[in-house]
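Handout, page 2. Input:
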Amino acid sequence: MSSSGTTVSPPLKRQGFLVGLLKGLRGYALVPATLTRLRLWHSLLWPGFVSLLCSVLFLFGIWFLGRWMTDYVENSLSISPPWLDHLIALTIGVFTALLLVVLFVLGHKHLVLVALAPVLGKLAEAVQRGIDTGPRPGRPLGLMGSLLRSAAVNSRSILLELTLTAFCMIFLLIPGIGSLVTATLVFLIQARFMGQGLFDFPLEYRSYTVSESAAFSRAHRGLATGLGSGYLLIMLIPVVGWMFAAPFGTVAGVLEAHRALMPGKAASPGRGGLT
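Output:
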């Protein structure tokens, strides 16, 4: 029994990581039908706009800071010949921009989840009520409560991601396949913790504490990684992906959390309820 009075469901019978990952991706295939049946497409507009705005501001910030760094270094240096001066300044500016892009990829997704936490929490609640008409356990957190909870979950994820990503850089020393191994591991790390953030919205609805939510995600690593992988793949689509990755991921998280917690009553949007 949790401190909030909610019984934490035990993990499902052990599944292979790959099986769980594929099931996590499956949740995204059910999102359009779920939104259509529950008439919730309009609920994607506001989080989509805010997510796009955050993305555009990030990109403008990256461009501005890279340009400023280039001009600053070029004006500060006095090296002959002039073309070498310009080349060094340009190199530093490009390096700065690339570093900011990496930070954008690492941190943007979690910052969007925090900024949109109250809205995505309401979306998760609407979907959960649509697929399971039982009473809501506990009490809603409210605006500030949702923001603080999401900040706690995602700040922890960012720290772990940065630590594990830095560790993965060691594999770059392996000739030939080092870059591929590093890229694969970094993607899976990003996906794993992104999925944890998406799982937290339906678990918040069920009155799970932050620590219980993290434990659930650890018990369902494959599912969490599949959810996060779907989010990251959607983010590869310019503009549209930036807008709808978060709400789509939230709905997919609700559906897959419901399957994991109630395996005998999996959500079936095509049949109007539970199977």
